[in-house]
Amino acid sequence: MWSPLYVTLFQSTIVNAISNILAQIIDQWKSEEPFRLNFTALVQFVTYCIIIVPINFYWQRWMEAHYPGFPTSLRRWFSRSSSPRAAPGGRAVDNHPVLIPIEELAVKEKSIASVQSSSHASRLPSASDRNNNPNGTKNFVIKFLLDQTVGSVMNIWLFIVLINLLKGSSWAFTATRVREDMPGIMIARLKYRPVVASLMYTVIPVDRRVVFGSACGVIWSVYLSLHSLSR
After folding, report:
1. Which of 48, 185, 187, 202 is the most exposed place for a label (fewest CB within 10 A)?
2. pLDDT digits (tens, 9 = 90+) for 214-230
3. What whole-number distance in Å separates Cα of residue 46 and Cα of residue 215?
């Protein structure tokens, strides 16, 4: 059975490859020539994703291990949604909610056990730990702020650096791109990322957050491209 990291890497790579192909289609939309896939650009972007996904995977795990849980009001909502309901014959039937608590799926996977036994600091909290955590709202706010600051700067910086280096650019040129491009990309990210982060740290399991972020990135990229074409 594949580990959560390999599943996340595979799913995110597929999602980001689709994102790049969609971006190329939109970029060539007004061209009179037939669509021609830029395979080099696709490979460069996929390579970037393969490098960045494990970094974000363990970043999300680190945050959840150190700041577990989510707001108490949402925990009560989940408790009501997942409470058993009685069947006509009196037998309790699990009323499976659409949204599942953080890490409910991940804690069942074998790889979590090895992580827990190897390092207490990196141990992911169990479901009972999260449900009994009185600091759920505080930890949610901390994770949210870390995502908007440290996470944003890290991901934007790595994106600009890796993409330019994969294109064969020099370090000097890459440094110039970082100085010129980071402010604009940071502002653009802040226009949609808070909504994504709010969902990530309340209803998305930790080992699915990178894939969820990639999927939202596709939607965001397509929206921005279509918006710019309509102007």
Report:
1. 187
2. 888 777 666 655 554 45
3. 14
